[in-house]
Design goal:
The chain has 145 residues and is mostly beta strands. It has 2 helices and 12 strands. It has one domain: Immunoglobulin-like.
Length: 145
Amino acid sequence: MKIVHPQNIHYEVVSLYISEIRFSEANYLHNIGTVQCSISDRKEFTPEKLTAHELKTWEINFQKTSILDITNSPLMVSGDIKVELTQKSSRKMICSFWVNTFFMQNDAVRIIDGSTVKFMHTLNKSEIDGAHKDKDHKSFSEDFK
């Protein structure tokens, strides 16, 4: 699918592999311990609601690491992608964000690793649902990414 954007940007669905998600300044998550990280894609879109279809879920023990490392079995995604962290016990949403692979590829820092091109896309606290509401930095530090 190709769409011509009003600003002459030629949008097309791009497939990428997610191999790693890093969280920095994640003290709040460290205190929670083990959380679930799920990746979903867009199921359907209506003007009123964006619906997600869960692709895969992993556990992250933030007391041991702040990195979801799935380099051994990366997940191929395309289009609109949602990443959501939930508490393992209650399934309460901690934070989430939507990204689009087309814009990730175009806006990300490119890292060349041999014959592989990796894209590193960084979201700041203000771009992460759930975290951005913490204006007083009680749960998420100002530098949470």
